[in-house]
Amino acid sequence: MHTFIETRYSNHPSDVKSYDTSTLRAHFHIDSLFSADQINGVYTLNDRLIVGGIQPVSKALALETVDQLKSEFFLERREIGIINVGATSVIEVDGKSYELANKEALYIGQGVKDVIFHPSKSGDTFLYFNSAPAHHAYPTKKVGKSDAEVVTLGSLENSNHRTIYKLLVNSVVPTCQLQMGMTELKPGSVWNTMPAHTHDRRMEAYFYFDLEEDQAVCHYMGQPEETRHIWMKNHQAVISPPWSIHSGAGTSNYTFIWGMAGENLDYGDMDIVAPTALK
Fold first, then answer.
1. CA 79, CA 59: separation in Å to the nearest integer?
2. Hey, which residues does 141 pair with through a beta bridge?
3. Which residues carry a binding-site annotation for Zn(2+)?
4. CA 201 – CA 47 distance, rounded (Å)
5. Can you give the residue ranges of every domain in the chain?
6. What CATH number does the domain located at 3-277 have?
7. Do residues 59 and 119 make contact, with C-beta atoms less than 8 angstroms apart?
8. Residues 6+ apart with CB under 8 A from 59
């Protein structure tokens, strides 16, 4: 067994108001996704998303089912999206090989039985994934940055000049409910997702990377009138409930992966919160 998945429960916003730093981090912060020759993750009861990391080093790793799923195989009732945040790697899907370069994505639909992750031949393998419940089988598809729907927002003057790559969204690849993408901040910019927003129809998870070891990101969460913050390091993730904002500011620029699951596939379905309305 090389797969270790932790369960995290849902939280009422009234309860979160009383959390101290350690309690807040215990419920929402994910600090150790990557371990050599292991698949690690968190099964959150917020839309039952699984947030995880895969690091094959000395051997290939198969996608194993876990006790939380009570299924014969991992994707029996699920879909999965994988984004490579390390060296070029190969993923086998029911016998067919897909080579993923850095910042390329792979969608694998419900019903696929055999998924095998191979160590990279050119460097360290770091594969980040999100998995959500699925009701329909959609085909496996590789999506590179050139295939993504790309939007550039913000400005250097406002410290939020950034490019959004919508990799696994319904305008690029059909999915049941999973959506994933990546946002790269330009040098000199540190703010992400500002103005902030909420979307009661979907939860979200953020994964921060391309961050130097001596730098950090302050991730903001909570209801707009009752915000909290969690300090994040490189290769760490955070769970954002549907009622919470999800924004951040770093001590340098960085990249993050956003993943969503829930009621709909409308990327623009969000309730904007003006910076001056945050408390």
1. 24
2. 107
3. 197, 199, 204, 246
4. 10
5. 3-277
6. 2.60.120.10
7. yes
8. 37, 119
Tokens of 144: 């590179």
Rounded average pLDDT over 72-93:
98
Task: Give pLDDT, residue 62.
Answer: 98
**Residue 127 CA to its chain's centroid (Å):** 11
Question: pLDDT tens-digit profile of 164-204?
Answer: 999 999 999 999 999 999 999 999 999 999 999 999 999 99
Q: Could you tell me which residues are annotated as the binding site?
A: 197, 199, 204, 246
pLDDT score at 66 = 97
Could you identify the residue written with the tokens 């969204």? 169
Residues 99-144 pLDDT 10s:
999 999 999 999 999 999 999 999 999 999 999 999 999 999 999 9
Pairing of strands 3-8, 38-44: parallel
Strands 141-143 and 29-30, how do they pair? unpaired
**Whether 168 contacts 178, CB under 8 Å:** yes
| Per-residue pLDDT band at 266 (split at 50, 70, 90) | confident
Extended beta strands in 118-201, E state: 127-133, 141-143, 149-153, 162-168, 179-185, 191-192, 196-198
pTM of whole model > 0.85? yes
Instruction: Name the nearest CA neighbour of 55 among 39, 71, 75.
Output: 39
CA–CA distance, 127 with 105 (Å, rounded to integer)? 10
